[in-house]
UniProtKB/TrEMBL annotation:
Gene Ontology CC terms: cytoplasm
GO BP terms in the entry: L-proline biosynthetic process
Pyrroline-5-carboxylate reductase dimerisation domain residues: 168-270
Originating species: Bordetella genomosp. 8
UniProt xrefs under Gene3D superfamilies: NAD(P)-binding Rossmann-like Domain (3.40.50.720), ProC C-terminal domain-like (1.10.3730.10)
Gene this protein is translated from: proC
Role this protein plays: Catalyzes the reduction of 1-pyrroline-5-carboxylate (PCA) to L-proline.
Compartment list: Cytoplasm
The protein's name in its UniProt record: Pyrroline-5-carboxylate reductase
Catalytic activity: L-proline + NAD(+) = (S)-1-pyrroline-5-carboxylate + NADH + 2 H(+); L-proline + NADP(+) = (S)-1-pyrroline-5-carboxylate + NADPH + 2 H(+)
Classification via Pfam families: F420_oxidored, P5CR_dimer
KW Isomerase (keyword) present: no
Length: 277
């Protein structure tokens, strides 16, 4: 833990709260956090955990070596504009805001030239329980040491995957960023399907969640690819084969692929929209 490291959160909502919980006591003390958020309850919650908080950016930001921008994309330009006067040379900026390309944000941050110390991230909501996965993109001016620091901080709420460019962040958005919603939708379908074949809601929920979590753990710990694991469950002419035949007839793989393509396309469209500010 580095007692000399100070971290700012511009936006103190759910994702910032998850990051703060992961970082507190591991990376730096919670007293070293400064949070900017217009919401009174959010500021009070951070203050209760030891952080300082303000409704608008102020000079306390100048003491922070790392800034997290964790606001909704439609508010990002305003957040940057109001906080930029307190940005000091060498500050590492980490954006967890969806839909803002790295080069666009670097341009907003820099007074005369694009801000070089910038890492763009796409986390997902399981970060709220320490099980997130985050796609990360470093701008060229980020040093290896700064990359390691950024990775360590995001790894406090799950795993991280580095990518090479903003196009890859669009792909990350389509897979892991939006992915929890796909999984939740599938869980809903399993629960509903379980009830249709005779289970009650509580039984169906427990079986669905247990099946998903067990299958994920098996896939993670096995050296075999998912297709091999699937084949081991599937006996010729058996119940699993009958179910998978329905999936294949309705082009399940194609459906998932098309859904992800739609998400990636929407990510690109939003980046174009928000990048006009």
């Amino acid at each position: 833990m580095d007692k000399n490291l100070h971290i700012a959160f511009i936006g103190g909502g759910n994702m910032a709260t998850a990051l703060g919980a992961g970082l507190a006591g591991k990376i730096c003390p919670p007293e070293n956090f400064h949070v900017v958020d217009i919401n009174t309850d959010a500021r009070a919650a951070w203050a209760a955990r030891g952080a300082t908080a303000s409704a608008t950016p102020d000079s306390r930001l100048e003491q922070c070596q790392v800034w997290f921008y964790a606001v909704k994309p439609q508010f990002m330009h305003e957040a940057v504009t109001t906080s930029r006067p307190f940005l000091r040379d060498g500050t590492l900026v980490i954006s967890v805001a969806a839909g803002i390309r790295g080069d666009v944000l670097a341009g907003w941050l820099g007074a005369t030239a694009p801000w070089p110390k910038l890492v763009r991230c796409m986390p997902n909501t399981p970060a709220l329980v320490g099980e997130g996965v985050t796609g990360m993109l470093a701008m060229p001016g980020v040093t290896d040491q700064e990359r390691r620091l950024a990775e360590t901080m995001l790894a406090s709420v799950g795993s991280v995957v580095w990518v090479a460019d903003d196009a890859a962040i669009d792909a990350v958005t389509a897979l892991s960023g939006s992915g929890p919603a796909y999984v939740f939708r599938f869980i809903e379908a399993l629960i509903e399907g379980g009830q249709r074949v005779g289970l009650n809601a509580e039984q169906a929920r427990e079986l669905a969640l247990g099946t998903l979590s067990g299958a994920v753990r098996l896939a993670r710990e096995s050296d075999d690819p998912p297709a091999v694991l699937r084949d081991r469950v599937t006996s010729k002419g058996g119940t699993t084969a009958a179910a998978l035949k329905v999936f294949e007839e309705d082009d399940f793989m194609g459906l998932v692929s098309r859904a992800m393509q739609a998400a990636a396309q929407r990510s690109r469209e939003l980046a174009d929209e928000f990048g006009k500010a």
